[in-house]
Amino acid sequence: MNPPHLPSGTAHQHGPLPDFLPTADGAAEVVPVVAPTGDRIWLVTAFDLGRSVLTDERFSRAAAAAPEAPASHPMRPDPAALTSLDPPQHTRLRRLVNHPFTPRAVAGLEEGIRRQARRLLAGRDRIDLVSQYAMPLSAATICRVLGVPKAEHTHFADLADRALGVTTGDFAEQGPARDALRAYIGELISRARRAPGEHVLGALATAYDEDGTLSHDELTALVELLLNAGYETSIGQLGLAVVTLLEHPEQWHRLAAAPHREAAAAVEELLRHTPVVPMSFTRVARQDVRLGTVVVRAGEALVVSLLHANFDARAHRDPTRLDITRRPARHLTFGHGAHICLGAQLARTQLRVALAELAAAAPGLTPRTPLSALRWRQPEAVVRGPLALPVHLTATRAGAVPG
Ligand code: HEM
């Protein structure tokens, strides 16, 4: 078997990454690892096999949400969440929330994201790209999709920041903060039931009250998932993307030379090279499944390393090289199959606009602290990313003569 290539281990990747990811060259396509829960799980490291496993209905998310199932992370999945369902329950729920995430609906949000990005950058010569750029952009976008009133976007961002530890990195604080976020979500749902309005919250409240298509637990879990999954992932991915570009100045200069032309391809390559969520959710085999030389037994758990799949030399030419002009930059960063990221188009649009506007406003972008001194989210976090990313917004390219 030809091993996937993640050279020098994962050394060039910033954290946190799970301890059990193989760091040496030569990992097999499917390897047994021990998760922090103490459970033994199978890890798929290859691109093609990863794709096929993620579409294989013999591997179940619902079985992975059962209390006794082996788990890759100490935080147990909510059995009522969209992410924990198999078809046909999954298909029914996903159809209810799909509409605002279609390419057409997302295109309608782009101008608003661009105006906000420009406002956030205007008139400044320095900024923390996490708390002052990625966070407000991400909060406003997901709140707009769901129908959270504008006056409450900052309140949501503060609650979500503490609940998820996006800039605090503080795990002790997260229990009470999660309760506060859940209470706020409950309040949003009650309001949407009284006055549904046009947005997702209203549509879900109607499905709950009128059609009975949604149970109370499903409704709460869905809103929670959309707010959380739509928030911290985009923030972490933008932070990781900018750090990666600062570490590859020639790639940053290429982007800055034609930001609006290069940004879409740059985003795909950055998603491939530095995926914010390095692993898929856990699946549990419903029956014995042979994967190459390995047999995954019924009841055993399996996870796809999206990071390793993105570096598999059989699927990507010269995978270790960051090349923002790579076409196509194929990756598994949004997963694949039935559970493929619902917000992929939204995330791509946010990243493209945020990066293009940043590169246009500050082609000479420089970090204010050495990148090696950046603080990162804690290893328990499912989503990785820097806690802060202070930069100078320099309008002229380093070394260029101001014109
Ligand atoms: C760069 C940003 C993002 C990345 C890398 C990302 C990644 C992922 C991945 C890998 C999965 C599937 C995991 C699996 O099947 O094992 C997923 C699912 C999901 N994502 Fe994202 N995501 C991002 C942004 C968003 C945004 C902006 C939203 C907006 C609400 C979102 C909502 C969801 C939802 C609802 C699911 C579950 C879908 C289902 O179970 O059917 N994500 N995401």
UniProtKB/TrEMBL annotation:
Cross-referenced SUPFAM superfamilies: Cytochrome P450
Cofactor field: heme
Domain of life of the organism encoding this protein: Bacteria
Coiled coil: none
Pfam families in the cross-refs: p450 (PF00067)
InterPro entries in UniProt: Cyt_P450, Cyt_P450_B, Cyt_P450_CS, Cyt_P450_sf
Keywords: Heme, Iron, Metal-binding, Monooxygenase, Oxidoreductase
Region (Disordered) location: 1-23
Protein family membership: Belongs to the cytochrome P450 family.
Protein name as annotated: Cytochrome P450
Organism: Streptomyces flavofungini
